[in-house]
Amino acid sequence: MNVLSDNFAAFREGFLGTVELTALSALLALVLGTLIAAFRVSPVPALRIFGTTWVTLLRNTPLVLLFLAVTLGLPALGLKGWDSFWLAVMALGCYTSAFICEAIRSGINAVPVGQAEAARSLGMTFNQSLGEIVLPQAARTAVPPIGSLLIALAKNTAIASGFNVTELGSLQKTLNADAGYNIYVIFLWIAICYIIITFAISGLFRLLENRLAVSR
């Protein structure tokens, strides 16, 4: 218990860093994932090709390699001055967006085709029918898998500790190597912190799922 009490400020900073990194990465992933899903079902061939390429590349690229590409590749291209935290948000958000895109696309495919056809018969454009008719119905189907993906995102933030980002994963080096605390006790408290975060995400999406559920 003294590991936590003696280093409460460090644990609090790491916990809040993980929460902030998860929240911002999730926001980016949800926005990009929804946009790419719209591209994938778009009637415009170029957008469909872009969406398919985005999903294929990111889903088949290891996250660590994507971190390296962002943290080392962007400065090499002249995009310098980015904080390591925001580079981590970019890597995590883009990576997760590919999986969220497929969850949303599955939800879109679950909506009866007649819904979109009825919208078109009323003179609605593709964007209008997608945004006002299809996506709201697809959300009911997509909520559970998106919740699971964001839980995975919260755990993936641990990779950011290897790229100079202050979060829960970085506590291991600080407390074990520098302060000499027992590594197993450190990992136990870090695991408890991750459990709190993932349980919070799970509870939030369970409430959202119940709120969006169709009465039967």
From TrEMBL:
InterPro entries: AA_ABC_transptr_permease_3TM (IPR010065), ArtM/GltK/GlnP/TcyL/YhdX-like (IPR043429), MetI-like (IPR000515), MetI-like_sf (IPR035906)
Keyword Cell division (UniProt): no
Keyword Cell membrane: yes
Keywords associated with the record: Amino-acid transport, Cell membrane, Membrane, Transmembrane, Transmembrane helix, Transport
Pfam family, any one: BPD_transp_1
Membrane-spanning intervals of the chain: 21-41, 62-79, 85-104, 183-208
Bilayer topology annotation: Multi-pass membrane protein
PROSITE patterns: ABC_TM1 (PS50928)
Location of the ABC transmembrane type-1 domain: 15-205
Subcellular location: Cell membrane
CDD domains: TM_PBP2
PANTHER family tied to this protein: AMINO-ACID ABC TRANSPORTER PERMEASE PROTEIN YHDX-RELATED (PTHR30614:SF37), MEMBRANE COMPONENT OF AMINO ACID ABC TRANSPORTER (PTHR30614)
Family: Belongs to the binding-protein-dependent transport system permease family. HisMQ subfamily.
NCBIfam families in the record: HEQRo_perm_3TM
Protein name: Amino acid ABC transporter permease
